[in-house]
Amino acid sequence: MSAVTASIAFLNSEWKDADDMARIYSRETRHANTTKHDIDIHNARPLAEAGKLDLDRNGFKLIKHTATFKNFEDKKAIEREYFEEMRRFMLGVCADAVDAVPFPFYQLRSRRPANFFDAFSLYMHCDFSLNSWGEMAQNLLKQQGRGDRYSPEEYDFALYNLWRPIYHAAEQSPLTVVDASTMNLEDIIEYRLAPTGTQSLAALPVFNPEQRFYYFPDMQTDEVLVFKQQDSRDDVAKVCPHTSFIDPTSRSDAPERRSIDVRVVCVYPKN
Which of 257, 259, 242, 248 is nearest to 125 (CA)? Predict the structure, then answer.
């Protein structure tokens, strides 16, 4: 099938010109601040097989990779072993990168998590504010003992999400991404992840009919969807908004999706 139609929630359009920011930190506040749109989500596998997807143009790419790490119930082992495996993986994916640094946070997704933020997202979102990336990258590098090695005057930094199914194929609740080449950055709006305060910034897109959406049906455990979260370089894709969605074509008796996403910062010398 070339495309499926699904109902996806986007940030309410009035926030684009508002002086204040939305606050979204629960299902109730999400429902109050988003509106659903019926969108066509295209099967990206033919593009991937034809070699027509590029991280710096489209912002996403599907890559075959069989993880040697298997113990996804062991938090410390994930941080110690899987992070390192995916760090090395990204150095192979991004040939121009001189270093790769794991982001000290990951998520195991399930349908019934312990808290709101570990649930499958069912609204189109970016994980971080685009306006704070420079400071965030420097703080992360300092935490990893690399702060003096890569100055922002000499290096650029890109943050990638590495998403894969675990235990079995992702038939239910697959992930869709916006092709970054169709994304107007002015449509990405900051919001706050907490009921009070001025911290905890993230971002959501408003809907634009120019946006084009893709997914990889029946992703396997030996496939990794790599997509952009941030990039300080000029003239490349910056971010792929993304979300889970209810695939109307998935088997009703398919197992519930289990997945892990980790993030890796790649360091590039400035041209």
Answer: 242
Instruction: Compute the distance between CA of residue 9 and CA of residue 245 in angstroms, rounded to an integer.
Output: 10
Q: Helices H, strands E: what count in the chain? A: 5, 13
42 vs 45, 157, 179, 238, CA distance in Å?
9, 30, 10, 21
Q: Which of 196, 202, 59, 195 lies closest to 132 in space, CA to CA?
A: 202
Backbone angles phi, psi at 118, to 5 degrees: -95, 0
Q: Where are the beta strands (DSSP E) in 65-138?
A: 99-109
pTM for the model stands at 0.94
Which residue blocks in 97-243 are alpha helix, DSSP H? Answer: 133-143
Angle made by CA atoms 119, 170, 103, in degrees to the nearest 5? 55
pLDDT digits (tens, 9 = 90+) for 235-266: 999 999 999 999 999 998 999 999 999 999 99
Fold of 3-269: Jelly Rolls (2.60.120)
Q: How would you classify the pairing of strands 34-43 and 213-215?
A: parallel
Q: What are the residues facing 242 on neighbouring strands?
A: 125, 177
Q: pLDDT band at residue 89, thresholds of 50, 70 and 90?
A: very high
Q: CB neighbours of 46 closer than 8 A, spacing ≥ 6?
A: 2
**3 state SS of 243:** strand
Radius of gyration of the chain (CA): 18
How many residues comprise the chain?
271
Residue 100: partners with Cβ closer than 8 Å, 6 or more residues away? 87, 88, 90, 91, 94, 264, 265, 266, 267
C-alpha to C-alpha distance for 160 and 228, rounded to whole angstroms: 5
